[in-house]
Amino acid sequence: MAPQLEPFFQKVDDLSGSFIDRLRKAVAIPSISAQDENRPDVFKMGQFLASELEALGAEVEQRPLGKQPGKEHLDLPPVILARYGNDKNKRTILVYGHYDVQPALKEDGWATEPFDLTVDAQGRMFGRGSTDDKGPVLGWLNVIEAHKKAGVEFPVNLLCCFEGMEEYGSEGLEDLIQAEGKKFFKDADAVCISDNYWLGTEKPCLTYGLRGCNYYSISISGPAQDLHSGVFGGSAHEPMTDLVNVLSKLVDVQGNIMIPGLMDLVAPVTEEEKSLYGDISYSMENLHESLGSETSIHPTKERTLMARWRYPSLSIHGVEGAYSAPGAKTVIPAKVIGKFSIRTVPNMESEQVSKLVFDYIKAEFAKLNSKNTMNVWLQHDGKWWVSSPKHWNFTAASKAVTQVFGVEPDMTREGGSIPVTLSFEQATGKNVLLLPMGSSTDAAHSVNEKLDKRNYIEGTKLLGAYLHYVSEEPINA
Amino acid sequence: MAPQLEPFFQKVDDLSGSFIDRLRKAVAIPSISAQDENRPDVFKMGQFLASELEALGAEVEQRPLGKQPGKEHLDLPPVILARYGNDKNKRTILVYGHYDVQPALKEDGWATEPFDLTVDAQGRMFGRGSTDDKGPVLGWLNVIEAHKKAGVEFPVNLLCCFEGMEEYGSEGLEDLIQAEGKKFFKDADAVCISDNYWLGTEKPCLTYGLRGCNYYSISISGPAQDLHSGVFGGSAHEPMTDLVNVLSKLVDVQGNIMIPGLMDLVAPVTEEEKSLYGDISYSMENLHESLGSETSIHPTKERTLMARWRYPSLSIHGVEGAYSAPGAKTVIPAKVIGKFSIRTVPNMESEQVSKLVFDYIKAEFAKLNSKNTMNVWLQHDGKWWVSSPKHWNFTAASKAVTQVFGVEPDMTREGGSIPVTLSFEQATGKNVLLLPMGSSTDAAHSVNEKLDKRNYIEGTKLLGAYLHYVSEEPINA
């Protein structure tokens, strides 16, 4: 056991009641970034964090980000930048989190008031933002407080970057990260983000990869206006007919992407990589439980996780411009836009992917011999991210998990994207670790969001232990 | 020239100013059946018609239809049932029209106030309801007035059935028609409906056929709730992938329905029928003008009109449950419902069509090997209608057209449906003629709806002349 951890752990247990109170106060502030009327609450939550950090002895700045683009009557909430400790002999660790939350109304189906933290007999703490991401953010504050009150020397210099617009596209954050890469963040030796989830409910994980996402639109247009299908059906080319034809050529029902050359861009699986999957605590039952159905494609856990984490996938999201309401309408839509996206993985470069997509769709449309007009374009892209799970930032975190939970963490990736991860990596040039606090059943973004008391209190211990291990982990590890 | 027509024609010309005034008064009443707040205006319009008919000497009844289903706070507007003349030695002609209109707001893009009839230098009379269907309905009233004022004996007994809910699905009408088939309508020798349009702008037409419509939904469902495409893309069967596959198998880009056996149900084209198409006043330029594009499927007028009128067509209308808004959302929809309809023609029976559709779609879905669940069902159907253009009701109308316009009418069908046509045929057992007043450029249901003064005034002459010819047309013709 690393020195100093026992008194720190003991103090976290002693303070657990006040740590839950801190979370209760934070949950009570409905800091919903997507709703204009709650903007003052987002500011209030930023002030709450700033005050708590100052009370703990951190230097805090509430960095304004200006007006909200497209909603200029609203000020963007500030990024809370904080520094705790400034000792040249210690490593500096940059941590990120967000203090805004998703909307929530009791009427949506919550069993309890969403902004009133409610702890049940099993220690489940229900409340909007409990797990996403107020619990993890407060975890860092709890770590500072427990060290102070236990009289344990803080092992690192801590830099905090807490934003208030994450649930609304992190407006303004990217520019700040890039601008501060060589300024406020310049001392950072490594980065740690706690804003994702364990793969299951029992075993912690460290996350070393994320898929990227290229989002495409295909528009097909013909007549100048929507047509009556009685009057024109059979005599004019229908854009919707063309579109379902093109969309049906993108991916097969078993999930195989049918765009020639695309799979050639995917990095081959190494034996070493393969060996990581067998031990991961996950089962087909876990998948079926989260799907709410048994409509899985692959027969095994390993193939399922690889399909989710390290292979690309293509999903068709919908059609804009066609009839989408309940009931029946006999319209021939004049212009329809199909939307699909490709989740990307190493070594798929966005430009290469787009070229293959565009060439293929143009060729398939040409084969149709339609007189309609087709366009295809990239709506947005975000790059995949993969880090080395052998970096000292990860090995330190792994030791911390083993220390606190008595088990080695699963090394996982995620199928989705967390764009800020890549931003921090690019701006600082340092390794980024994703160290989740919550579990797979926490229902972030959904009704009855919760954080288990165990995940919060042991998770606070984990964040503290991580700082100790990362302060002394050999760079060559 | 049939006796009595010259003085009638002269009187119509003399009264044209007051006939336009009558239309102006009717257009000024915003009898929009789809908008709750306009329901009193629909009643006002019914009262206007009843008063005018009574002033002309007709026996009038405003038949109540009870509460509006699903909107029980609203009374359905009455059906105006009127009888003009009761001479056992004359034929009795039943005419139908509707006095409600589509919604209209100046802000929608009207050049003039939609409920203020505005006549421009070219004699175009702009106003909501001018052509659909207040002009034709008032045409019958004008015919009575001109006969009275010219001192010309009215050639037939006239039965009127004018409804006030046509633009909202003719709520309550079907029951009334079937109930009155052997009561109020029992004397009818033939039926005439003026609620459609010329194929072009110069040449009148008589319409003897309508396509039917079978409307289908295909639902495909998999997971219990919408999924994040990052987390689940590649590991679960996606309902939208299955749906675009199935939809792509229904119809090809050239409009050929791919459901095996369906085309075998279509009545073969006879040589006599073929001969009707060559003379019809229509061109590919007309089609391209109404499409606003040159995205026609067929190279000739004849094939275009046959594709529209006497062959079935299949249109895909849209998808319910998928992402349909502008922008980008990375959702995997849990349940999607594809909507399509088949325009039907003789001799396609609805049950036969549905059996072929269901069998084919089930077989195609089975081929996909998806674990998702598929259902397909008929949302609604309406039968096609074809009458004989050689019936005396038609030959009489043809002579009237030749008399008034100096040209033989085109014998046309329509690609869409007018369900009331079949209802009157079934309830009365008599021939139904569609005798349009307005032209193809009248923009019914759209902004700047209009009726040309020529179509209204010469159209009034046509309705009167038709009554004279139909009163004496030999039954064997």
UniProtKB/TrEMBL annotation, chains A, B:
Record-level GO BP terms: proteolysis
Residues in Peptidase M20 dimerisation domain copies: 216-366
Matching Pfam families: M20_dimer, Peptidase_M20
Domain of life: Eukaryota
Source organism of the structure: Aspergillus campestris (strain IBT 28561)
Family note: Belongs to the peptidase M20A family.
Positions annotated to bind substrate: 195, 228, 330, 343, 417, 445
UniProtKB keywords: Hydrolase, Manganese, Metal-binding, Metalloprotease, Protease
Cofactor (UniProt): Mn(2+)
InterPro entries referenced in this protein's UniProt entry, alphabetically: CNDP/DUG1 (IPR017153), Cyt/Met_Dipeptidase (IPR051458), Peptidase_M20 (IPR002933), Peptidase_M20_dimer (IPR011650)
Cofactor annotation remark: Binds 2 manganese ions per subunit.
Protein name: CNDP dipeptidase
Active site per UniProt: 100, 166
Binding site for Mn(2+) 1: 132, 167, 445
Residues at which Mn(2+) 2 binds: 98, 132, 195
A GO MF label: metal ion binding
Site (Important for catalytic activity): 228
